[in-house]
């Protein structure tokens, strides 16, 4: 399962919230150069960023593990996405409703690759800035793409969002 989205939307947090192993992260300090490129205005406490991927896993049952791969959020690291999504059952595109334009690339990527995905609006400070219908309209996602609210810090919330994607993937294999 691929966890994708723009810069600072909560991908690393989501993987860390649900992984049963200590997640492997490739966090690097945000340099002054990167700070000039990446918009930190809504994430002023952010001091690191993913430069390759995050990795975690969850056991579904004794015979089945779900591996989680978090993508880097900046376009300059986009060249890695093709390798990260190879063999993926689906994707969860996390969006920050205060910065929807940062997530267009991730939505377009999954649509183009025809990988089943859901959009998860991360509830920063316990709220989202737009209704789910407004998020769907702004991102121009098809009606069959689920759009949900979740909190990347809460295990149960991340689990529920991932289950939505797993249901999509399962439905795809049954058709």
UniProtKB/TrEMBL annotation:
Keyword Hydrolase (UniProt): yes
Signal peptide stretch: none
Database matches in InterPro entries: Gliding_Motility_GTPase, Gpn, P-loop_NTPase
UniProt keyword list: GTP-binding, Hydrolase, Nucleotide-binding
UniProt-listed SUPFAM superfamilies: P-loop containing nucleoside triphosphate hydrolases
Pfam families, per the entry: ATP_bind_1
Translocase is among the record's keywords: no
Family classification: Belongs to the GPN-loop GTPase family.
Protein name, entry field: ATP/GTP-binding protein
Organism name: Streptomyces justiciae
